Amino acid sequence: MVALHTAIAIIAIVALIIRFKVDPVISLIIGSLYLGLASGVGFEKTVEAITGGFGEIMAKVGLLIGFGVLIGSLLHAMGTFRKLVGTLINTFGAKRMPYAMTTAMSTIFPSIYVDVQVVLAAPVARSAAPFIGARGLPHLAGGIGAGIFAGYVFMIPGLAAISICALLDIKLGSWLMYGVVLGPLTAILTTMIFGVLLRFGWWSAERDEEYDEAVAEIEAHTLAAGGDVQSVTASGESPSKPSPPLGIALLPILVPLVMIAFGAFAEVLDMTNPFIDFLGNATVALFVGLLGAFLLARRYLRESGTSEALSEGFHTTGEILLITGIGGSLGQVIKATGLDDQLAGLFTADAGAPIIVSILLAWVVAAILHIAIGSVSVAAITAGGIIGPVLPSIAVNPIAIGLAIASGALFALHVNSNFFWMFKSLLGLSTTGALKSLTTVTTIASLVSLPVVVALGLVI
């Protein structure tokens, strides 16, 4: 009966979000309450599990998410990401822009929220597309979509990646060692495969593009802020407002990644000590990045601009933390029901390949949740909450299971996602065009990354 009640709770959460348009935070709480009470956990212990799970996940990931969002907000306000895009255009040329953009999106841009990423990238895609040819816009759109979400789920400090690590108790440094390769690799391979599809007639500009006045107005507004190809000088500088040199501006992102990676490699090489552990601690590393971004912002944005950027970051952080924390609550309630013992049976196999079967099951759980809910982060967090309590019973490295969840959560982003419609509008696509670009590339990315995750699971 516990398994049945869990299935009902998950279906109810999905139905509330999709059918009745209830906020994911409220939906997850309702599902958690139902599961605890219906499974016989009891009133008091159900509430304890919800609050305890929230507190536990916040202790692990709360500061990390907060610091990461604030870093992104400050750098965005200084025009760092527009400047990076301009540098890519001037360095690689328009023809190579799909690959340059997808690489940047999957490695550096995960420090900012996905909707901001597409707002920054869409005008550049529209401007660069004519220089590439008839397939320029769809190829750039596909590269942007693949890069944004590959970075979101595989790369630190992508929200989905950090959340999965917290729910499965994976060290960020250990995850980074794999994600820093898997993220851009997935994005680049996906963009290449999508380019082949385009060459074989996958795209029809007449049916798949709808570049109207509304899009032109949005683009003009964004380009005026410093994103136009023509307004960027040979050095990648934007003349719209004072900002730090690109190499300096990226330090708040690069320094924390180096610190986290240093700690991870030191651990692997058995060279750790308290000071190295301190330097490699993800919370310390991201705080160093936040401090650097704050000092740069005070230098270039002054006090008022810095305060405005921080306020925007705090606003975004609150929503993210609530959803992430309540994903931890659901996992704690599942643990309180004793379902972990029953679920453990699903992650074993008598066919001689338990590792592969376990990884595939984790991927399927995340993929189904994403198709139903329409949010990559909510799907990843919910899948992590479901599978987390079962991990001790699975004879697979937690990193492999986490990467499988990340890969599955990418699968087939479509019309029930708010991002889908933003992507469609900003890039000037029809609904069919958005399905043939964003939905296609997220599906390809999920399928491309899965064999790599399986291979990793067999060797780590």
TrEMBL record:
Protein name, per record: Gluconate transporter
Alphabetical keyword list: Membrane, Transmembrane, Transmembrane helix
Keyword match Transmembrane: yes
GO cellular component entries: plasma membrane
TM stretches of this protein: 7-37, 57-78, 99-120, 140-168, 175-198, 246-266, 278-297, 355-382, 394-415, 435-459
PANTHER family per the UniProt record, alphabetical: GNT FAMILY GLUCONATE TRANSPORTER, PERMEASE
Pfam families xref list: GntP_permease
Native source organism of the sequence: Nostocoides jenkinsii Ben 74
Keyword ATP-binding attributed: no
Superkingdom of origin organism: Bacteria
GO MF annotation terms: gluconate transmembrane transporter activity
